[in-house]
Amino acid sequence: MQIFLDTANLAEIREVASWGVLAGVTTNPSLIAREGGDFLETIHEICEIVKGPVSAETVAPDVEGMLREGRLLATVHPHVVVKVPLTEAGIATTRRLADEGIRVNVTLCFQASQALLAGLAGAAYISPFVGRLDDVSWDGTDLIRQIVGVYANSATIHTKVLAASIRHPLHLVDAALAGADVATAPYKVLKACIRHPLTDSGNAQFLADWAKVPERDISLLVEKWRAKRRS
Ligand code: E4P
User: Fold this and answer.
1) Ligand 1 site-directed mutation target among 5, 6, 130, most atoms within 8 Å of CB
2) Which of 1, 46, 14 is nearest to 187 (CA)?
3) What are the pLDDT digits (tens) for 34-45?
4) Ligand 1 center to residue 6 CA distance, Å?
5) How far is CA 222 from CA 8, 47, 206, 229, in A?
6) pTM
7) Which of 117, 188, 225, 228 is deepest in the core (most CB within 10 A)?
């Protein structure tokens, strides 16, 4: 499973990109509004940082508006994936954009039947919202499992399952085990994926023990070791 970052914050994207594990970014109107600034400039800059798909969402309510916005967004950078909501207009737009060779991420998916329609319309990605379902006592991970199963039984569907609305590290692990192709997580969740108190205390102990070793500069040790082997 690949990992995308769910943010429009450039500092967060730069930091996670430097870890060498970031495969893409998703944004939405709320995330863009939170950062302020120029929408298209932000999307372009994200695309320059991340060598992978970057979702930019349309905001028009109807097919003609979504098509117009989607086509324009796709011209901003080759990495742009046009994001549309899972409405009737969104499905019709997906079909049209897919036929034009523009990749579409269909977002706000809360049931497998929606994902089936998006897949048949030629979506590149379907975004089931795991956390928002869990918030209302539905099993978000179970939806991932259902969609993966539905797509496995549909020979003409090549849509990737992009687990979204990820709230904590366990959501990422559950999405991977359920067969999601990608999970998009906020910065704080990715940080939480790395931190563990036992890692921190174990590392502190290793370093404290190493500090007691008389000759502990590894560069000097390697130099001495090489000289010894040469002689
Ligand atoms: C996905 O593309 C969405 O931007 C995002 O995952 C929504 O997450 P939220 O439920 O935390 O707002």
Assistant:
1) 6
2) 14
3) 999 999 999 999
4) 7
5) 44, 41, 20, 10
6) 0.95
7) 117
